[in-house]
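Morning, I've got a small favour to ask if you have a moment. The fold is given in discrete form, as structure tokens running alongside the sequence. I'd be grateful if you could look everything over and explain what you see. No rush at all, and the record is pasted right below.
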Amino acid sequence: MASRPMKILIVAPHWRSRRSLRDLLSAGLRAAYFEADGPAEAKSVLLHESPDVVLVAEPDETEPLERFIRATGEPVVVFGKARAGSRRATHWVSAGAAAYVSRPIPASELAGVVRSLGEARTAAAPEAPNATVVDDWLDGLFEYLRGHLARAQYLDRR
């Protein structure tokens, strides 16, 4: 029986970063790829696609990614510039990331890390989407709608 292809979500702020990470991974790993430009868009993808592994380009600001790592139920790999074992690299692992990978890295090595995490994820029992992610997404949607309703009422009064 053929297994389904692994699903990988790549989160990076710039399309060039997402494309280079995708190219690097696809050199050594066949998978279905999804892309997001940040945690907000990634939450939507998590709700609809349930990826096996999330690969995130290390951002300058740490707090949003830390919240995202804690909220998602999927293994998160942080891809950054710090050396393995450095304080910054160990920070991400202690924040809940499954792994920290520093660049430059051979495509085969990155694919091996992602493959092992993805296989471990697919071997585990399938889970429903993380309730925290769903709640955060719905809270954002309601806040957005509330803002539009307030604007509509203001314009209606004029």
